[in-house]
């Protein structure tokens, strides 16, 4: 595996834009129907790139919510550094500019024999191909004492919206000097650096507003993503405020006591003023219920087309997919969705199939002015997806470099959400 220089990283993010430019079909080539389940990052991107590249394919995007609030940047929101509105996006441009039929409903089931998608409200939509992007579900069975009802007292805040609002309110009303306990999940889970970014930004909030407060991270793991960068930043920005306890130290998380707001580990019980429990994860419920998931809890896919290995004609993108080395991130969901859209167009029209370009770019905030990044390119290999090149920020970079990364992150957010929800001209 090769490591990128910062200059090469810049070139690679340019390549991401080019990777989005797929085949554009002539009007007469197809009248096929594609139904996309889920209007999150994977689903919205797939719908947009199908519509933009093959205008005669009829595309229906089914999503229950009228708006989508991004998880990325939600840690900034929780720390009081941006508004929820600034992270919320509608589907109007996808409908109006790209002619996508946006239906606000839930998909109840796919019938692969009749080739229909059944909506919760009753109607059945015929399809030639389905793209499924339901995101994650929480495996409550794997964490004693914590369930759906408990999330109203101890939020997971791992989907953005009401959960992130609840966590922010709890932090705002917490007395100075309290302990914020964050339970970090086992691998694999949505966005590997995000629990530790959350701890960093909440420490920043405490420093400004509740300086006697502390953060305790109880981890289900013994190490975590970009650990050296976080430990260095916690020492520089928040000395003595954040304590990270790995599973080998506590003996692992055993149970949550919602009434006591405490976390029981094998060695000790930790009481919180505010707790944030991020449970173990698996593919979204829809994937579980429609035969798309294997014993791993995730959806096995063909690494070139993202077609399910269990259900022909149904493609799975985003966090729900089991995609080799690719982490569960929004950038990955977007990258997979583009590759999947072009593979579907090729299959439906008999046009030439292009090898997919797959990428991840991630910005992580250590403080509002100190951000790190990584960029990874992947390729399908040996029946799975492997890392080819990567760039990752290093400990001891200059303050200016980190400040620059924080500024880039803001531009990345704007460009990325435009790419996904269609505001930019294509
Ligand atoms: C705190 C945090 C910070 C993060 N930061 C970053 C970051 O900086 N960069 C990054 O790249 N990623 C980040 N991520 C990860 C990113 O948010 C996810 O990887 C991404 O949202 C996955 O996209 P998805 O389309 O698979 O799922 P989602 O975006 O969750 O979308 C799933 C959609 O499917 C819909 N749905 C579910 N079931 C049905 C059904 N039956 N019928 C119809 N619709 C349905 C849901 O309503 C939802 O809109 C972060 C995540 C968290 C939690």
What does this structure look like?
The chain has 426 residues and is an alpha/beta fold. It is 30% helix and 27% strand. The chain has helices at 6-19, 41-53, 74-78, 92-96, 162-173, 194-209, 227-237, 247-250, 285-289, 330-349, 399-421, and strands at 2-3, 33-37, 58-62, 67-69, 88-90, 101-103, 107-111, 116-119, 124-126, 129-132, 136-138, 179-184, 214-219, 242-245, 253-257, 262-265, 269-271, 274-277, 281-283, 299-300, 314-316, 321-322, 358-367, 370-381, 384-392. The strands form 8 sheets. A 5-stranded parallel beta sheet has the order 6-3-2-10-21, with helices on one face. A 4-stranded mixed beta sheet has the order 1-25-24-23. Strand 12 (179-184), helix 6 (194-209) and strand 13 form a beta-alpha-beta unit. It is globular. Residues 1-30 have low confidence and may be disordered. It binds flavin-adenine dinucleotide.
Number of strands: 25
Helix content: 25-40%
Distance between the termini: 34 Å
| Structural class estimated from helices and strands | alpha/beta
Radius of gyration: 21 Å
Report the mean per-residue pLDDT as an integer. Answer: 93
Shape: globular
Report the bound ligands by name, code or SMILES.
Answer: flavin-adenine dinucleotide
Instruction: Bin the strand percentage.
Output: 25-35%
Please give the order of strands in the largest beta sheet: 6-3-2-10-21
Number of helices: 11
Unreliable stretches = 1-30
Largest beta-sheet characterization: 5 strands, parallel
């Amino acid at each position: 595996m090769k490591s990128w220089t910062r200059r090469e990283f810049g070139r690679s993010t340019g390549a991401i834009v080019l990777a989005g430019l797929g085949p554009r079909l002539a009007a007469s080539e197809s009248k096929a129907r594609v139904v996309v389940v889920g209007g999150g990052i994977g689903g919205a991107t797939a719908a947009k790139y199908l519509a933009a590249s093959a205008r005669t394919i009829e595309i229906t995007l089914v999503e229950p919510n009228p708006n989508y609030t991004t998880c990325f940047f939600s840690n900034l929101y929780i720390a009081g550094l941006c508004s929820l509105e600034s992270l919320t996006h509608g589907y109007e441009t996808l409908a109006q500019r790209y002619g996508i039929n946006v239906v606000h409903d839930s998909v109840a089931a796919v019938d692969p024999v009749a080739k229909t998608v059944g909506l919760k409200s009753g109607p059945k939509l015929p399809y030639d191909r389905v793209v499924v992007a339901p995101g994650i579900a929480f495996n409550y069975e794997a964490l004693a004492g914590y369930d759906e009802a408990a999330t109203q007292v101890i939020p997971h805040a791992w989907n953005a919206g009401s959960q992130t609002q609840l966590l922010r309110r709890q932090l705002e009303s917490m007395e100075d000097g309290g302990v914020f306990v964050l339970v970090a999940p086992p691998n694999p889970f949505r966005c590997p650096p995000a629990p530790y970014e959350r701890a960093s930004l909440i420490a920043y909030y405490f420093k400004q507003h509740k300086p006697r407060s502390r953060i305790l991270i109880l981890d289900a793991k013994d190490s975590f993503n970009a650990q050296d960068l976080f430990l260095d930043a916690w020492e520089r920005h928040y000395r003595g405020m954040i304590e990270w306890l790995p599973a080998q130290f506590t003996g692992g998380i055993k149970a949550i006591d919602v009434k006591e707001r405490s976390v029981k580990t094998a060695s000790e019980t930790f009481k919180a003023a505010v707790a944030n429990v991020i449970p173990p994860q698996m593919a979204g419920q829809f994937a579980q219920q429609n035969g798309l998931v294997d014993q791993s809890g995730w959806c096995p896919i063909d690494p070139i087309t993202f077609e399910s290995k269990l259900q022909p004609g149904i493609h799975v993108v985003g966090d729900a997919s089991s995609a080799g080395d690719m982490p569960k991130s929004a950038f990955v969901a977007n990258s997979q969705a583009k590759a999947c859209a072009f593979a579907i167009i090729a299959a439906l029209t008999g046009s030439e199939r292009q090898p997919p370009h797959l990428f991840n770019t991630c910005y992580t905030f250590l403080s509002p002015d100190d951000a790190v990044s990584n960029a990874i390119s992947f390729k399908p290999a040996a029946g799975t997806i492997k890392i080819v090149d990567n760039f990752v920020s290093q400990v001891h970079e200059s303050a200016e470099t980190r400040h620059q990364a924080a500024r880039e992150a803001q531009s990345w957010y704007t460009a990325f959400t435009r790419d996904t929800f269609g505001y930019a001209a294509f």
